[in-house]
Structure formats: structure tokens, C-alpha cells
Amino acid sequence: MQYRKLGNTDAKVSVLGFGAMRLPTINDEKNNINKNEATKLLDYAIKNGINYIDTAYPYHGNDFTKEGESERFLGKYFSNSFKNNKFQREDIYIATKMPSWLIKTENDMEKIFNRQLELLQTDYLDFYLIHSVKKDIWNPLKDLNVLKFLDKLKDENKARYIGFSFHDSFDFFIEVLDDYNWDITQTQMNYLDVDFQSGLDGLRYADALGLGNIIMEPLRGGKLANNIPSDIQAIWNSYDEKRTPAQWAFKYLYNMREVDLVLSGMNTMEQLKENIAIANNSLANTMSAQEKELIKEVAKEYKSKKGNDCNGCGYCMPCPQGVMIPDCFKEYNQSYIFNEHEQTKHHYNLVLNNNQKASNCINCGLCVKLCTQQINIPEELKKVKKLFED
Fold this sequence. Notes:
- The protein is an alpha/beta fold.
- The chain has two domains: 293 residues, TIM Barrel; 64 residues, no CATH class.
- It contains 15 helices and ten strands.
- The strands form two sheets. It has an eight-stranded parallel β-barrel, surrounded by six helices. Strands 1-2 form a two-stranded antiparallel ribbon.
- Helix 9 crosses helix 10 and helix 12 runs antiparallel to helix 13.
- The relative contact order is 0.10.
């Protein structure tokens, strides 16, 4: 296993982290973790050098407003492992997240954090992150003195390092970075998302500040590894050295010096073994110019399947009616890129509330004047509505 120093922290982390969001389940029930299979995966992962375990309050639950089963399962797993001397507490880094959308009072922070310690059966966390930071969540949190609460956690040695996971624009990413003396950030990155949300520029900016960079969605929820379109596979096959699509996706990330750790939600032994094998040979700055061009060609081919030319810049925002235009178009384009209309429809209705959906557009046209891609946004939103809401 390869290890990298996580920003300016003292943590030396495995380049592959274990994401406990997609553990194997029984009968496809999210809140019914297959404990035997999940235990085998974690045993193998830690035995083979993975030392960063990532979870969150709602993982493996049916409702993101309630605690899930991931933290509870991991707490029991860690406790049993320590008792049986499989490994010790100092051998691993435990990371979990504050459910930002559930914090309505200052007391909620303390209450939920203590519950998370209880579920994970630990006295302290190595990493504690604010989950899913977005503009509509972040400013109310600051009003509730979240920064003071984070300082308190560090002062009391209940959380060694503090960070946040992010889902908003690059400009807002810079704002959040300036708000606190963060240790780490967790952002979405893969070869399709270089300009999405904080993107590559955010990755480099955080690195320049000395923050540790943790990457999520390296395979876009598995879409870059499974059910590959024939035209995309033909491009991969054109390279002399044969690699799986997953190998290419991870190699792209590990090649970047700014990337410290890549999270993967592995739920089969086959996935785990493949990802560990890739991580064992994951040195930075080892990718050839020809390999980089091949990945650019694949990304270009994927993006050619988009429904429209939205690049997520956000200049069209804010919409007077509250429509989250970039998010609507992101789901719409992803639906066409991966030819997964039903699955994307489900995600669209999960991540956007009714006031943010395309159907709220009243065709005022203000956004059209601001669009850098000259998209007729109201007309495109009608297509989004037809695909996802009608």
C-alpha cells in the first residue's frame, strides 16, 4: 500500500480509503448491513494497509434525517477487533461527519456529536467533517456558532482534525476555506468532473494552503467502471497496455500530487482487491503524455452525450424563483451521458426540494442574459421537467 501525508496534518494515510456508505446489504435493504460480509471486507482492507475508514451519520439508513446503521456497525466492528487484537485504535483513522442539514440549534451539534461517539464506540475522532457544505446550509451554521463548536472539539481532543465535504461552486469553496483554519477538505473529483463544483482549481487551491485533499466519487458511483458504452471501451482498448476502466479512473487521480487520499465505497471482495492492487502502484507524476491524452479523449466522448452545454459555472444564479439551474442540468446531462434516466430521475427528486426543481421556472429570461454558454435556459428546463417530473 502507498501512503501520503494528509496536507499539513501529522496523519500518514493510505492513498485508498474505505468508504462505509455502500457496505454489502441483505435483500438490497440499505439499513440491513450484511455484517458477516462487511466484516470480511474490512478485515481484508485493514490487513492490506487501508487505514482510513470514512462514514457519516445517515449512511445505511432509509432517511437522511435520521441516523443510519453504518456508524453503529463500525462501532461494533472496531470494538470487537480491538478486543481480539486484530488491530489497535492507533492503527486506523476514523472519520465521520456532522449532518449539517439537521443542525437547527447550537445544542444539536453537541447532541449529535456525542451520539456519534457512542455509536462508533470511541472517545475521539481522528477526523470530523461538516457534511455536504453548500451556501444555503453554511451561513445558517455559522450563525449557530459552528466554528466555535469545532474549536471546542479540538481543544478537548475529541476531534484531532477538522474538515468539510463540499458540494457547491468554486467561488463559494474559496469563501468557506477563508472562514476557518481547516485541516482537510473532501471534494468530488474524477476525469469527468474537473470543472464541476470546486473542481481542479479548488483541489490546487486547497493544496497551496496546506490542506489535505480527500477525493470522493472517483468512479461517479461506479458509472465509470461498469456498463461502459462500446464507443468508450473502444478508446480504452486502443491503448497498448490493457487496463480496466476503474484502473484508468484511479490512475488519473493518483497521478496528481495534490491528491492525498481517494475514497471508494467497496461492497464486494472483487472490487476491494482490484482497488488495493491499483493503490499499491499509485505514485504521483508517473502518467505519460499519451495516457493523459487518452483520458481526455474518453472524457470528451462521454461529454458529447450530454443533453445541453451547461458547464455548471453558476453565472445564471440565483434564480428569482429558487430554481437550482446548474443542479437541474447536472442531473439532466448525467442522465444522457450514462443513459440512466430512471436512476437519475430518482436522484433528481432526492437532492432537489420542490422549490428548486425545473417546474418552478416562469420563463422570466433573466438567466439567459447571464449564461456563458448562451443556453436558452427556460427551454432546457422544460426538457428537464418533462424527463424528471412529468
